[in-house]
Amino acid sequence: MKVAVPVLDTEVHGRRLVNAHFGKSNHFAIVDTNTGDIEIVKNPGLHVERGRGIRIVEMFGKKGVDAVLVKEMGPGSFDKVRNVLGVKIYLIPPEVKFLDDAVERFKKGELEELLEPNEEEHH
User: Which domains does the chain have, with CATH numbers?
Assistant: First the structure.
């Protein structure tokens, strides 16, 4: 199974930090939960004014993403990921800072599914 997580460019002791913002994240980590392989991909929608969510979703579709783990997601991206891509979104709790922790909790079934957007749209 492949999960996508927005990540910061910085690492702490070789561990990637989760980015709290989905649409404005510079990079996403695509993690294969079976093999542990991690691919870091640039956000294809970063420099567009509109349609950021759909570009991210198209990239996730090409990469075969099965689930998305986030701290926050606005209505536009939420709709695209859930309804266009058709994958579930899971909430990374506030105390989880690192990519590996987030993925580990997901694998253990400890993350709640995000059923509605939890970030305001900024225009």
Answer: 2-107 (3.30.420.130)
